[in-house]
Amino acid sequence: MQAAFIDVGLSRNAFLYIDDVLHPHLEKRPKRKPSIAELLRPGQEPIVQIVKEPQGGKGACVTTRYTLPGRYLVYMPRADYVAVSKKIADGRRTRRTGRRSRSGSRCWRAPTGHPATCSAGRASV
Asked: Which one of 64, 69, 74, 97 is CB 3.0 to 4.6 Å from 22, fit for a cystine?
């Protein structure tokens, strides 16, 4: 099992699966997938986000691909793409929101996030 147990301060350690470890080697899809021991060391303190609450006797599931949702933007610090919410149904709004976000305005440095649904009517994100 390629996973690690991370102490996040809860009664049980959190479960971190190898595919949820953000690492340059995983992003480039190498021929040989590195082991969890090559990516994480004992005592290392990775930044993680809980994606599934603890249930019963099992601990929480965590990921290193964390997101920080805001009112108009979901910030994804390590993402390599820009996306627009599927809840923005109007194709014209979707195109405008995406184009506006990639325009390089001061508050946006692509590729770091995607506009939240409530940003559809905003002049700038």
From this structure: 64
